[in-house]
Design brief:
The complex is a heterodimer of chains A (about 280) and B (about 180).
Chain A (H helix, E strand, L loop, with lengths): L7 H37 L3 H7 L2 H39 L3 H8 L2 H7 L2 H7 L2 H7 L2 H7 L2 H7 L2 H7 L2 H7 L2 H7 L2 H6 L3 H7 L2 H7 L2 H7 L2 H12 L1 H38 L16
Chain B lengths: L1 H10 L3 H9 L26 H33 L11 H21 L5 H6 L1 E5 L7 H13 L6 H4 L6 H6 L1 E5 L1
Antiparallel strand pairs in B: 1-2
The chains are: A mainly alpha (about 280), B mainly alpha (about 180).
C-alpha cells in the first residue's frame, strides 16, 4: 500500500479546508449543544414566561427545523471532513508503519493459507491465457544454456535413461538402408589392413576340429569323386597297368627270342645275324 | 590369402628361395622322368623269334581247348535239359576230341589270321602274321596255314633253325610272323 505523492497546492489547500470544516462543524455542534441545553433547562427550570419566550410553538418548530438543517449541514461537513481527513490520516499513519512487519507479527498467514481452497483458486485460473501472456521465446533467449548444461550431471542422467527402451524404438533397418556401404568400403585401404593381419598367428589359433566336424567331408569327397570321374581314372589306371604288364611280357618275349637266337646261332656257327637284310632291320 | 602370402614373400628377403625349395616343395614342378625306351621299339617289323611265337601258339591252344571245354559243358547242359532222366555226361573218344579240337583250332586260326591278322596269343605277345610283302593273309592261305599248323605243329620248331625265323608252314606258304 503506497500513497501517491502530494503536490504543494494540496499541502496548502487541504489544511485550509480542514480548518473551515472544523469551524463549521464546531459552530453546528455549539448551536446544537445550546438548543439541547436550553430545552433541558426549560424542562428543569419552571419558567413559563421564559418558556413561552424560549419555547413558543412556532419558535420551537422553527428551532427544530433549524436544528435539523444544522444537523444535516453538520453531517455533511463532518462527512466531507472525514473524506478528507481519513485518507490523509491513513496515509500518514501507513507511511509511518511497517505494514509487512505488522502483518507478519499479528496475522497467522499459515492459518489463513490453510483455510484457502487452492484447488478452487486453481480451477478458476485460466492457464491458457496465462501461458499466452508468457513470452517463452524471450525466456528461452535469456537462458544461458551452456551454463545450464555445465550444471547437469550427465552421468546421473545417463544412469536414469533406459537405453534398451531407446534402442528398441530405433529403426535400425531404416538407418542401414541409408548407409552407403560401398562408399565406406571404397575409402578403406584393404591392402594396408591385410598387411597388418598376422595370418600365421590367426591360423595358429584356429581350432580346425569343429570346422572339420561341421564340414560334410563325405559329401565333399563324393562331389570331388564325381568331379574328377574317379571310376574313369581307375579304369584308365587299370588299363595302363594292364598295358604295362602286356608290354613287359612282350619285351621279355623279345629278349627271350634274342637270347635263344644267339644260342642257336652260336651252336650253328652262324656268323651273321638272322635279321640282316630284312626290311626294317637297322644296322 | 594368396595376396597376403605373396606380399609376405615379397617383403621377406630370404623367404622366397627357402619357401620354394624347402617349405613348399610342391611349388617346383619336378622334371618329367625320361621315357624308357622299349625293346619292342627297336624290333618293330622284325621276324618274331621262337619263344614269342611258341608262347602265342600255346595261348591259342589253351584258348581253343578252353573253348572246346565250354562247348562240351554247353552241349552236356542241353542234353541234360532234353533228357534229364537218362542224362549222362557225354564221353567222346580221344580221337573225337582231337578232331574237334583240331577243327576248332583250324577254324579259329583261319578266321583270326584272315581278318585281324593275329590270334589272341599273337596279340598278347605283339605279333602279326603277314605274307612276305607285309600284307594280311588271304582266306585260302590263312586256311592252309591253319590246317598245316593243326596237322604238324612241330613245324614251328623250324623257327629255331631258320635264318629268317620261319616255320615250316611259313616256308611252304611264304608267310612270316613279325613283331607288331
Amino acid at each position: 500500500m503506497t500513497l501517491a505523492p502530494r503536490s504543494s497546492s494540496d499541502v496548502v489547500a487541504k489544511p485550509v479546508d480542514a480548518a473551515v470544516a472544523v469551524v463549521s462543524a464546531g459552530t453546528a455542534i455549539a448551536r446544537y449543544a445550546f438548543s439541547v441545553t436550553a430545552r433541558t433547562a426549560l424542562d428543569v427550570v419552571p419558567l413559563p414566561r421564559l418558556a413561552r419566550v424560549v419555547r413558543p410553538r412556532s419558535w420551537r418548530a422553527r428551532a427544530a427545523r433549524e436544528a435539523a438543517s444544522a444537523r444535516l449541514a453538520a453531517e455533511e461537513q463532518v462527512r466531507a471532513l472525514a473524506d478528507i481527513l481519513i485518507p490523509w490520516v491513513a496515509r500518514e499513519v501507513l507511511s509511518r508503519l511497517d505494514v509487512v512487519d505488522l502483518v507478519r507479527e499479528f496475522i497467522d498467514v499459515d492459518a489463513i493459507a490453510a483455510h484457502l481452497d487452492v484447488d478452487a483458486v486453481a480451477a478458476r485460473l485460466d492457464i491458457d491465457s496465462v501461458i499466452e501472456r508468457v513470452d517463452i521465446d524471450g525466456i528461452a533467449a535469456g537462458l544461458d544454456l551452456n551454463t545450464l548444461v555445465e550444471k547437469v550431471d550427465v552421468a546421473r542422467v545417463i544412469d536414469r535413461v533406459d537405453l534398451d527402451e531407446v534402442v528398441s524404438r530405433v529403426d535400425i533397418d531404416r538407418i542401414i538402408a541409408t548407409v552407403d556401404l560401398d562408399r565406406i568400403i571404397a575409402t578403406i585401404d584393404l591392402d594396408q589392413v591385410i598387411d597388418r593381419v598376422d595370418v600365421d598367428r590367426v591360423a595358429a589359433r584356429l581350432d580346425l576340429d569343429p570346422v572339420i566336424e561341421r564340414a560334410n567331408v563325405v559329401a565333399i569327397a563324393r562331389y570331388v569323386i564325381e568331379a574328377i570321374d574317379l571310376p574313369e581314372v581307375i579304369r584308365s589306371s587299370t588299363a595302363s597297368v594292364t598295358a604295362e604288364t602286356v608290354r613287359g611280357v612282350r619285351d621279355q618275349g623279345v629278349d627271350a627270342d634274342r637270347a635263344v637266337e644267339r644260342v642257336v646261332d652260336r651252336l650253328l656257327l652262324r656268323r651273321h645275324g638272322r635279321h640282316e637284310g630284312e626290311p626294317g632291320v637297322r644296322g | 590369402m594368396t595376396t597376403a602370402d605373396e606380399s609376405r614373400q615379397a617383403t621377406a628377403p630370404v623367404a622366397p628361395a627357402a619357401a620354394s625349395n624347402g617349405h613348399y616343395p610342391w611349388r617346383t614342378v619336378p622334371p618329367a622322368p625320361p621315357a624308357a625306351l622299349s625293346t619292342r621299339a627297336t624290333v618293330h617289323g622284325h621276324a618274331a623269334g621262337f619263344v614269342t611265337r611258341a608262347v602265342g601258339a600255346t595261348v591259342d591252344a589253351c584258348a581253343v581247348v578252353l573253348a572246346v571245354a565250354i562247348g562240351y559243358v554247353v552241349v552236356a547242359g542241353f542234353r541234360f535239359l532234353l533228357h534229364p532222366r537218362s542224362f549222362r555226361f557225354p564221353a567222346p573218344g580221344f580221337a573225337v576230341i582231337l578232331l574237334v579240337v583240331g577243327l576248332v583250332l583250324a577254324a579259329y586260326l583261319t578266321v583270326t589270321w584272315a581278318i585281324p591278322g593275329r590270334t589272341y596269343g599273337d596279340q598278347l605277345m605283339g605279333l602279326r602274321v603277314t605274307d612276305l610283302g607285309g600284307n594280311r593273309l588271304h582266306w585260302s592261305r590263312a586256311a592252309a596255314r591253319a590246317v598245316l599248323y593243326v596237322l604238324f605243329p612241330l613245324g614251328l620248331g623250324w623257327v629255331l633253325v631258320s635264318a629268317r625265323n620261319r616255320s615250316v608252314q611259313d616256308v611252304v606258304l611264304r608267310t612270316t610272323v613279325v613283331y607288331d
